[in-house]
Write a structure and sequence with these properties.
Blueprint: H1 13-16, H2 21-24, H3 34-47, H4 58-69, H5 82-88, H6 92-113, H7 121-129, H8 131-151
Length: 167
């Protein structure tokens, strides 16, 4: 969980993790208040691999996030914090996993919206045959994120023999 030491969305992120503020200070008009804390958590709920919504569709996760924010029109793509969040809070492996997830969702929508006909059957069958490759690529990206979490320790401290269950 690299920069997040908790996933308590009821807490003010700027109070429980003060070093995070430095990553967002260059955002014009940024205020480190309750509202921006909730927006930070909304981005974490949508994009962070530790989110309880990380394995459901982005569309469904967005419904939950908008409910949390009590704002049915909130658009993460218009969030002034989104770029800093993606760049600073997520690891390279987590960003790669998000791209994989986004492309799978786009692919699924494309397949769902393309009618099966004499004109499209060969094309659709070719795409469907490659489904396992796409799923395997996503599984590999997910494994990299999980391995990264497994290998890291808070503060890059080496774990003791007891913590590693060697004694």
């Amino acid at each position: 969980m690299a920069l997040l030491n908790s996933f308590d969305i009821s807490a003010n992120i700027w109070k429980i993790n003060k070093p995070l503020r430095y990553l967002f200070e260059d955002i014009k008009g940024m205020k480190f208040d309750e509202k921006s804390s909730k927006e930070f958590w909304a981005l974490a709920m949508l994009y962070h691999s530790d989110s309880p919504y990380s394995e459901i569709s982005t569309k469904d996760a967005l419904v939950a996030v908008r409910s949390y924010l009590k704002d049915n029109k909130w658009d993460p793509l218009k969030s002034k914090m989104r770029e800093a969040f993606m760049r600073s809070v997520l690891t390279t492996a987590e960003r790669s996993l998000l791209v994989q997830k986004q492309k799978i969702e786009e692919r699924d929508a494309f397949l769902s919206n393309t009618p099966y006909s004499v004109d499209t059957c060969d094309f659709l069958e070719k795409i469907l045959v490659n489904t396992k490759k796409v799923q395997d690529a996503y599984a590999d990206a997910l494994r990299r994120v999980l391995n990264e979490k497994e290998e890291s320790t808070r503060g890059a401290v080496q774990e003791s023999a007891g913590e590693l269950n060697l004694i």
